[in-house]
Amino acid sequence: MRCAVLSDIHSNLEALTAVLDALAPERIDRYLCLGDIVGYGAEPGACLARLEACGAVIVGGNHDLACVGKFDLGWFNEAARSAVLWTRDQLSCTELDALRRLPLTATVEPCTLVHGTLRHPERFEYLVEAGQALDTLAACRTLMCLVGHTHLPFFLEYDRRRRRITRLLTRAGDLTEIPFTDDADAMRYLVNPGSVGQPRDGDPRASCAVLDTDRHEVSIRRIPYDVAAAQRTIRQAGLPEFLADRLAVGR
User: Fold this and answer.
1) 153 to 128, 175, 200, 203, 218: CA distances (angstroms)
2) pLDDT-derived band of residue 106, with 50, 70 and 90 as boundaries?
């Protein structure tokens, strides 16, 4: 099985379209989305429709839940809060209901999906420390846990028998064609595909992952898209200028 893993699309239709177009020639069996379909960008409804059209399995992110009153806006900075309030006004009742029904976690063997950490998915904590990674893997009952939220791609391997992290890959050159074993008794893996719609690792190209369970391989893909077009839609919508500017620098 080949799975496309997408996260943090953030209403960036140009980026999402480029990713789906790039993956179209490949044999993708399942699309998995780790949350934050909406927020920041200017095309929330269209992004949700594209994911629903490809039958994606989706878990909720903090922006998705904030749009339907299930996450406190007090946690957001001013620009993010403005975008959430704007997004609420753009979505139909049907679209808002789709966001409301998103689960916090999902299982698609051999993976568990969550936006933040698996120990406390409702808190939407940023998984940035080794202790958080170990807590999440301890709570994981599948071979691999897929996480988003930080907008930073990485691959982590944990040896359950030696009780230690044996690989942590964060550099772009190390994140392609990463082999893994399917021995769930011995190993656990943690993968962040990065952000489709608002990368923050200094590379403005859309980021996603392809997981091949037959070849036992994960690959982080970087896909260029029309950044200027995405910036124009944000500015034309009257959203904070900062949300458009940051797309060009990937920060």
Assistant:
1) 11, 8, 9, 11, 12
2) very high
Edge-to-edge strands, sheet with 164-169: 105-108, 111-114, 144-146, 187-192, 154-159, 164-169
**CA-CA distance, 77 to 213, in Å (whole number)?**
39
Strand-pairing partners, residue 179, are 217
Overall pTM > 0.90: yes
Dihedral sign from CA coordinates of 153, 7, 18, 64? negative
User: What residue type is assigned to position 16 of the chain?
Assistant: L
- Around 224, how many Cα atoms within 13 Å sit in the side-chain half-sphere? 2
Rounded Cα gap, residues 34 and 186, in angstroms: 25
Q: Which structural domains are found in the chain, ordered by start?
A: 2-248 (3.60.21.10)
Q: List pLDDT tens digits, range 212-226.
A: 999 999 999 999 999
And the tokens for 56?
A: 């994606």
3-state secondary structure 139-155: HCCCCEEECCCCCCCEE
- Give yes or no for residue 198 having a pLDDT over 90: yes
Are 223 and 25 spatial neighbours (Cβ–Cβ below 8 Å)? no
